[in-house]
Amino acid sequence: MVDVCDYSGNVVYASLLFKQVLEPNVFLFNAMIRAYTHNHVYDSAIALYKKMMRHPESETLIFPDKFTFPFVIKCCAGLGCEDLGRQIHGQVWKFGPGSHLLIENALMDFYSKCDNLRDAHKVFEEITERDVISWNSLLSGYVRLGQMRKARKVFEEMTDKTIVSWTAMVSGVVAVLPACLQLGALEVGKWIHRYSDKKRLLQSVSVCNALIEMYVKCGCIDQAWQLFDQMSGRDVISWSTMIAGLANNGKACEAVKLFQDMQRAKIAPNVITFLGLLSACSHAGLWKEGLRYFDFMREEYKIEPGIEHYGCLVDLLGHAGHLDQALDKIQQMPMTPDSKIWGSLLSSCRTFCNLEIALIAMEQLQELEPDDAGNYVLLSNIYADLGKWEDVSRMRKLIRSKSMKKTPGCSLIEVNNLVLEFVSGDDTKPFAKDIFSMLQLLVSHQSMPSESIEIVPEDCSQIRC
Fold it and tell me: Are 351 and 378 in contact (CB under 8 A)?
């Protein structure tokens, strides 16, 4: 009966049944611990395990067995309590079987989720007969912490790679790319692409989706599009990832067209799809279409927009110069606008020199982000554009009085498997002089009339002396 309650999710009734038994045996304890674990009631599972160890009502000793420990260890992982998990590990050595794969895999998963890969690897090394779960647990642990080189080493040693393994590797590359935490991350992704193509794993939609996401986040939109085009079957994630990728890589019109293709393919969009679509409309300046798609999302697909959708809409209207309409949309939001939305509106006010709405946005930002110098700088620039120099001086004094500093902008690029960081105003790099010289050359060429710029052919033999 406890198992039946477990399958139906009625853990409260299962607990009542358990309490009716005066002397529960190890099988009943295991069933109840399993039910608590499956339903994420980890505290109750641990409390019951402690009660089992004390067994005050039982005349005979009750010890945990190979079916008890995997679920108790999983509870420790769910609670994120490493100290408790270590104690359970000690009791495995004391009461458990000498070697049991389910327990060892659970321990590996526990240590990995506690970011303790050293002990996870120790458990892995002690396993006499590893299965695919053992390998995937260690692989996923390295991937989750961004240690892609170690993950790749484990991956290459695997004899039986599954879809989970491939997806974990690709997802790991995707995870580390935005922050450029791992050197050569794109190269690892390309290697996975080649390897999975050779092993015919590109038939898996999840692997292809992860690869597409990796490429679009790297700005390799052509490779992403080629892979998307080759997919025999696409799900909503495939379409949504590609639409967002096109929107964020300067191909907004193509993103809108792809959404129309998605509709013709009878694939129902989700919240992520519309987020990419609204972003595309914002980048392309298609404010009327963006408003239409925003209403279409609610009326046709019954999807309630979240704060991110409202943020895209405000950005869309702001870029188009419809600041009054953007402010109306913010005031009509069913949720409280965050600093990103007000900051977007303030930035648009800077573009169109709208002081009235800028002051409204700034009033909100002073409550949400009182120490963000960037907001004060934007308002100061609006005052400067309007020739209000006294207000400019007042803003600058306010920034100095609060000892605020604006975080300089930075960008990162990968060259020859090395990630290079460039910070605004930083001339300490050994090659900074060459870069600035090249930038000056590009600026001078850009300012020259197009008629005066001579096009030099690539083939030197075509140049007439």
Answer: no
Amino acid at position 389, single letter: W
Residue 229 is classified by DSSP as H
Taking the C-alpha atoms of residue 351 and residue 347, their distance in angstroms, rounded to an integer, is 7
> Which of 250, 274, 282 is closest to 348 using CA atoms?
282
If one counts every other C-beta atom within 10 angstroms of the C-beta of residue 407, the result is: 10
**CA 254 → CA 231, 248, 259, distances in Å?**
18, 11, 9
Query: Do 174 and 214 form a contact (C-beta atoms < 8 A)?
Result: yes
Residue 113's CB is within 10 A of a number of other CB atoms, namely 20
462 is written with which tokens?
A: 């075509």
| Integer Cα distance of 296 and 305 in angstroms | 11
Report helix angle 355-368 to 373-385, nearest 10.
Answer: 170
Q: Which residues pair with 95 in a beta bridge?
A: none
Q: How far apart are CA 379 and CA 385, in angstroms?
A: 10
Handedness of CA 226, 232, 235, 236 (dihedral sign): positive
Helix (H, G, I), strand (E, B) or coil at 411: strand
State the Cα–Cα distance between residues 396 and 400, nearest whole angstrom: 6
CA distance 217 to 202: 19
Q: Are strands 418-423 and 410-415 parallel, antiparallel or unpaired?
A: antiparallel
Bridge partners of 413, per DSSP, are 420
Per-residue confidence of the chain (465 residues) as pLDDT tens digits?
Answer: 777 776 777 777 777 777 877 777 888 888 888 888 888 888 988 888 888 887 655 556 677 888 888 989 999 998 888 999 899 888 888 876 667 888 998 998 899 888 898 999 899 888 888 887 888 788 778 877 767 678 778 877 877 666 666 666 665 555 444 333 344 466 767 877 887 788 777 888 888 888 898 888 888 899 999 999 999 899 999 999 999 999 999 899 999 999 999 999 999 999 999 999 999 999 888 999 999 999 999 999 999 999 999 999 999 999 999 999 999 999 999 999 999 999 999 999 999 999 999 999 999 999 998 888 889 999 999 999 999 999 999 998 888 887 666 666 676 666 665 566 777 777 777 777 888 888 888 888 766 555 444 443 444 344 343
As a whole number of angstroms, the distance between CA 211 and CA 170 comes to: 6
Which SS3 state, helix, strand or coil, does residue 429 take?
coil
